[in-house]
Amino acid sequence: MVLAVIGICRKPVYGDSICSSPGVRFVLWWFLRTTCSFLGVIPIAMSAQSEKSSSKSLESKSLLKLFNRVTRLLKAGGDQTAIYTSIVELVGVELRLDRCALLLVDDVERTSDSPELSVASEYCVDGLIPIIDKHYALKANSELFRFFQEAKPVPLQDVAPRSSGANHELNALGEDTCSKSLIVFPIVDGQKILGCLSMHYCIEAHTFSDDVLEFGEAASLELARFLIRERAQFQKEAEGRIFKQTSFPALVLDNSGRVRKFNDAFQAMLKSSRKDFVNQSILDVIPDGQRVLDAVRGLSEVRPFVTLGEVLVGRSEGASSHFDVCISSLCRQNDLADALLMFVPPGSKQGSMSAEAENSKRASEQLANSLSRQMSWERWVRQIICKLHATLDRDTILQTVVDGFGRALGASRCLIVRTDGPASPLVTHEYAEPDISPLGLGRTGQFPTVVVSYFRSKVAFIPDVAALERSHELSADEYEYFSDNGIKSMAGAPIVSHGISYGVIIILESAPSRHWTAHELDMLEVAASQTAVALSHSQQYLQLKDQLFNMNLLGNLTQQLTNTLELVSRSKIEAAEERRPTESAPPLSLRELEVLKLIASGLANREIAQRLFLTESTVELHASRIRKKLKLKSRTALVKFACDNGLA
With left for phi above 0 and alpha for psi between -120 and 50, is residue 400 left, alpha or beta? Predict the structure, then answer.
């Protein structure tokens, strides 16, 4: 049993794992190794690996302690450069590596277009030449690029052996470091490459043990979480500084005209003793508030910006203070949205604005655009999700998804491709721009299966379809299909809920080499997950509907069977009465026969009355008439008569 669990927890370099978290898998593997050692059990796979592994590999317990030390360094925070330096030095010393380096992507948003890795921190033993600040390109859509996106540890010599004509983007890393053995652990955020952690043996070649591979995966995952957290915090602080420290007075109004946020310059402009304007109406804040509020309510998708001249913002000591107000919508939708207000002195428009003011204004515009895009996407997502969960019809759900997200992302086409049917892949629903002819539903033989399989298990994008043809991943006929329909790039996500796959959603773009941003991929992932949930609800509704129909059908069948049995029973009674000789048949009515049968079955008069819905005296009257007609004197004689004549 221990061997089976160990086999489950192991993860080869290019394989998948049942344990999704490398950190959890690493801790579980250390526990099992310790248990096996205590019991004197040595797994066969572990024994074979230990013969091949380097003599420098550490015990699992030491690796667990090293992993905990790395985690504590990342959680402690502080200067990023110092943290990176401490981690690579700690890993290099504890693992007895000749070199350990951390390579990071400078511009994360360009990861879909040949990202460039630079050496941010490095540890190396004495006698080796440092490679700090060197840069290495990573070609998009290459084999190595896909390994990085899948967060798989990559032994570079296995990806591209050093032979004539064999080369890849990071081959120069091995040459610059004079590495005899080299492995890199990608640091990724979903499909976004953030960097990698590299381990080198430069003096002698060694095989990296499975324990070291597990440790490297867990450490790279912790580094990815740290980088994501730090960059999100940096972006938040940067936006806050732009808003707070800009030299122009600024505030944000909600759609009802109330102040949501303001900076110090706005408070100084009003020269007011009031320190907090949040939730105050603009009508109560400045004298010309009604004019500003009307302009804010007049913003729309067609007119997202407006400038008001000579707006009265205050009066003090008999003098009036006027400013020009630049108003921009923070959401480019037709409905009401928040607005950013910038108060500019009237003379600034004639070019007397200082360089600092220009930079501040530009930064404010960038902030407004960023907030506008983000709020626009969030509003689109909320609206579409509400529509998804407002119906239980499968076709309505899928058509809502392709129409909504096709328009939200400004895509040329949006498809739902079914992958669970007998004729897969099948295009079931489609959105296309008005000036583009649709691909047509049900074209199973034309839409390439290799492209659908690319999106079955993850959210991904293909920035350039031509690159797939050049790398021979697409056949000539498949590439011709995309080329004839003007498809240049695409993105997709699986529609999966609780392990059940309903298909994939694919966005097709005719613009050359579209850059898919992180926000767009997040929207696509949310769309796919919510669509899967809505489809599961629809499926449960159909199952419940079928069950109710079957229950109703069963009830009808049961009623018909009961009626048939009653008819058969009555017909038997009537047939028995007809077969009995007329002269021997007692001259009794139907009601009297019923009473006689019940008397013969041993019921008392009260019970008979309840059965026939009669009074007890009526039953006694029927019994008396029966004795009189049959010329019998007692109730016992009635029972004997009924038994002799087959009435009991």
Answer: alpha
Segment among 173-177, 433-437, 605-609 with least mean pLDDT: 433-437
For residues 416 and 455, what is the distance between their CA atoms, to the nearest angstrom? 12
- Cα maximum dimension of the chain: 133
Average pLDDT rounded to a whole number, residues 13-36: 51
Q: Which residues 6+ apart lie within 8 Å of 291 measured at CB?
A: 308, 311
The percent helix, strand, coil of the chain (3-state, each to 5) is 50, 20, 30
For 474, counting Cβ atoms within 10 Å of its Cβ (0-12 exposed, 13-18 middle, 19+ buried), the class is buried
The pLDDT score that the predictor gives to residue 362 is 62
3-state secondary structure 215-247: HHHHHHHHHHHHHHHHHHHHHHHHHHHHHHHCC
The DSSP symbol for 385 reads H
| Domains within the chain, CATH numbers bracketed | 2-234 (3.30.450.40), 246-371 (3.30.450.20), 389-542 (3.30.450.40), 590-644 (1.10.10.10)
The average confidence (pLDDT) of the chain is: 76
Per-residue 3-state assignment (H helix, E strand, C coil) for 86-121: HHHHHHHHHCCCCEEEEEEECCHHHCCCCCEEEEEE
Q: In what order do the strands lie in the sheet with 413-418?
A: 426-432, 413-418, 500-509, 489-497, 460-462
High-pLDDT (> 70) share of the chain, % = 73
Reference 37, options 52, 20, 23, 50; nearest CA is 50
Residue located via tokens 């591979």: 213
